[in-house]
Amino acid sequence: MTISNMRTDAQWISVSRFLGREAALLDSRDWDAWLDLYTEDAEYWVPAWDDDGQPTANPQREISLIYYPNRGGLEDRVFRIRTGRSASANQATRTCHSVQLLQVEETANGRVRARANWNVHSFQEGRTILYYGWSDYELTPDGDGWRISKRKSLVLNDIADTMLDFYMI
Amino acid sequence: MPQNAYIMEDRARGLFKVARTAFVSSSLLALEQERIFDRCWLYLGHESELAKPGDFVTRAIAGRNLIFNRDSKGVVNAFYNTCTHRGAFVCREAKGNSKLFQCFYHGWAFSNEGALIDQPGKDAYCEGFNDNGASNLARVGRLENYRGFYFINFDRGAIRLDEYLGDARPFIDLVADQAETGMEIIGGTQQYAIDANWKLLTENSIDGYHAATTHATYMDYLGNSGALARVGMSGGAHALGNGHAVIEYSSPWGRPIAQWVPTWGEAAKQDVADIKARLVARAGPQKAERMSSLNRNLLIFPNLIINDVMAITVRTFYPLSPDRMTVNAWAMGPREENVAMRERRLFNFLEFLGPGGFATPDDVEALEMCQRGYKNIQAVGWNDISKGMLREKPGTNDESQMRAFWRQWNMLMTQTPMEAAAE
Question: pTM (2 decimals)?
């Protein structure tokens, strides 16, 4: 095995471990630790589908399902859950994330771009909702690990069943 | 209390009840298809979606699959998406531009004006096979537009669209007139499904009463983030005839046309002032003030919602069964809107609206909980929609706009007008 292969293998394991940590934090509803995985300027984007069967490509010019230019938006969503006054967010949703890392690519400044497929079963008020899709992550090195500086998630179900929130994808 | 099939109404005491069977019965859903969706004007799409000759979109409307297109001569059409040969879709794409629609099964081809122009092996058909045009694409009975909003009607004998819209027209104008160069549907659709009867969403879309409770966290969130102007929520409700209704009210949130809020920053103040000044120049000070500072939740009976709130959403929905519906929601804005304001508009839209927003999921939750509650119909058979019935000027938080919907619904379903006196 070459040195370079060893390095990419180590990177693969480390990214895989990191994405596993995000999934586990969401499933255990540990919101603060989850938020902490994101940099303050992290962009979080879930595009909508257009009539032509393509996802929308520009959150500034087209409709999305969720779009935040920084982590503040995610903090607002956590705030909303914690008020206990949002009927759709205060019920205990049980979620099960299955995440599969597919690709890791190095970009500039030690950052990597990672592609992962996921499906998430959510049990909510007597029924199961399944969202599936893939996410493109931009990960920034942080000490021994990573932080998320971008996450774009494409939900492949084109009709959102009832509702969709960050912990269901 | 006087009762007319699905409604109990006592005008003297100010009581109005709707039978919960209207939300759960399969036979009533079939009757709604026949007496409401097959008879009323239904929204098909907006002219901005067909900008160029050849542009088309396909839409499912009231159980039919339709093609909405602008043909090569520039004429807008609504065709049934079915080959006149054996029935397959002649258009399988959701959106595009085409001079021709060709069925892939045997290859029959139709121009974008609907004419049958080619059949493989044409010499095997009789002379004058399509002389009467019966093998051209079938057109929906009626297609008319008001200010760029296209509607269809499956009933050829229906009254004209402008007559049907009646007093709702000036409220559509208040949206259409926000643009110098025309309003447009912004790219992307929010599609979602709700496990509730479609009429619950009609009610909810024009319901001012629920905002303070259902959307408490949205208000908290706006308050905390400084996204509020120093304006309270107040206004009135109007029945507009034919079941159409509107609530019009002031609100503390930012409006792209044109109410500034602190979160937009000092730099945006000038932008908002410019938009307002141009609006005043076009519409005059009084109408401009109304357009910019007041919100309108407009229902065009039975299922078109145009909500001009922190952004503009155009929304339709159709039942799949008594307890499930699909919703299509679009965003709308002025074509000439600058990049920064469009960004604010979209942020406002996503913040409140749609399955991933801060408000729509709470609405959906409420609707689904109502539908579940109707399982108890045998013990509790009636909904109450009496609020503000004895008030001379019903407010946004009253329910007169919903009573207007229900009276029309009941009239069409029972084919007997209710007591004529206007509320």
Answer: 0.89
